[in-house]
Amino acid sequence: MKKILINLALFQIGWMVCVIGGNLYAVGFTLAALSIHNWIVLNDHNEWKLIGGVVLVGCLWDITMANMGVISYTNADLFGIPVWLICLWLLFATTFRHGLFWLRRHLWLAVVFAAVLGPASYWFGSQLTDANFDLPLSEALLVMAVGWGLFFPWGIYYAGKLKA
Q: CB–CB of 8/95 below 8 Å?
């Protein structure tokens, strides 16, 4: 239970640091959080495969949304997304085998959570950063809900397969 709480705390604090602090703080915090994760939370080194896969798919999703005109970032750095967003994906990916792993038995709930909380995270983040919705808000949130509703349960399922 201690590992799960550490994992969730690192992600929640990291979300704030990445979104409010920008690239420099995001990179610093992410490196520290990944070191702590590797030292205290990590179950086995197979998890790094999952983290890499989640980050790759998540960043591709965000790049696609930026290129489709769903969302844009004034200070985008890599392929239309900022570095702090990549750091956020790294931090989020660490929760798939720990803080959010309980959802593997309830994939339908993972779909619902993702379809609601994924877009909500972007909306809250847009209030604190240079992110802008380029589509009408309802359309942008719908696109995000569909993507998150597919992506997140896949990640949780994959996390369960790696852990088995």
A: yes
Separation between Cα atoms, residue 13 and residue 11, nearest integer Å = 6
Question: Is residue 82 classed exposed, middle or buried when 0-12, 13-18 and 19+ CB atoms within 10 A define those classes?
Answer: buried
Beta bridge partners of 133: 71
pTM of the model: 0.92
Which amino acid does the sequence have at 46?
N
131-133 and 71-73 as β-strands: parallel, antiparallel, unpaired? antiparallel
Residue in 119, 105, 98, 109 with CA at minimum distance from that of residue 54: 98
Q: Which two tokens mark 27?
A: 């990179």
Q: Which of 9, 27, 144 is nearest to 88 (CA)?
A: 27
The identity of residue 155, as a single letter, is: G
CA 68 to chain centre: 19
| Chain center to CA of 117 | 11
101 pLDDT tier (thresholds 50, 70, 90): confident
pLDDT in tens, 16-34: 999 999 999 999 999 999 9
